[in-house]
Model the fold of this input.
Amino acid sequence: MNTFKRLLLGLAIFSVIFLPKLVFAAEPINIGIIAEQGTLVGDSIVNGAKLAADQINAKGGIDGRPIKLFIYDDHMRATDAVQAFQRAVYDHHVVAVMGSWISEVALALEPWAARLHTIYITTGAADPKITQLVHNNYNMYKYVFQLKYNATEMAQTVCNFIRDDLVKQYGYKTAYVASENAAWTEPLDAEYLKCLPKVGVKVVGHMRFAPNTTDFTPILTKIKSKNPDLLVTGWAHTGLQQTVQWHEAKYPFLIVGINAQASTSDFWKKSNGATEGIISQAEGSPSPITPKTIPFVKEYEKVYGITPAYGGYTTYDSIYVLANAIQKAKTTNTDALIKALEATNYVGVMGHIEFYGKDSPFAHGIKYGKGFATGVILQWQHGKLETVWPENAATSKVILPSFVKK
Done:
């Protein structure tokens, strides 16, 4: 065999062995996840994203392309989050960025999504200003979506539960509103003060406290002096210390509202059982919200050894919503994806998900109300986290702690 024939044979063997790997190697779809790692909700955001991406990749990815996650820790600082967003776009060429449960962080990222023409889906931040900006200047902020109930809707959920369960069944008539001082609780408290009287509950006091408060005895004592039936809350950065002090001192009012830290299975251990009786709103729970919910929770518990916080439910659904949008658009072009996301009609683990249109004051937020995801109300009972509202997802009825007045 002469040299020329040997060369041809060598090229033929090379093409058979190596070229198929190059031709069929699918380019990944890069997604950035920005979260406050080391926090309950931040870790749940990351875990929810990983679980969804792994499941989608195990089934062949998105039209044959695998999802590749780039995870960044913003250390609960807006400046770090902005740097992470820039890195995600410039260095890792992401199709979209998701995450963050802190409204101040999400609001800091919103202008960068506009400047860099990159989709940003917040899966934890609740401030309605996030979507109001989209409504007020759609062309600039059309890149931003909020796959999470906003604070106004969260307060409405709490009030509806109080009306259905605590007013009708227990005759409760008075409440004190106390929330941590943060961007997301301003609209939350404003809605509490509106909707509680509408459901038959008189507000006898209202306060906002610093998120770094460590001794809640003076606060709880002041609340007790007003003799409320209910303490209605907005707690996310805080929650553990006041829960323990409420239980140890046996304050006679029932705590209901938002206590994000109480929404996962390890809160019982962290509070040494002091969470017994605490009632909190959440985006999801180990209950039959949809046929997908319980299988998701079981798989999450199997992989991570804990039930997800609300950010786990929302971020898991967000990965699937984005994947469906890419499949529908048949491209990762940003403008085409925005249109596909706006047309979302998806049943996830947290319920039926659609986005409000640009004419809504909550533009690009998820729709709330009958026929859509509305959240659930959870209560700790005998060491177990039960769903007590709405009726179709409930696993138990409300049980009052022994020291709470009937």
The domain at 152-282+375-393 is CATH 3.40.50.2300 (Rossmann fold).
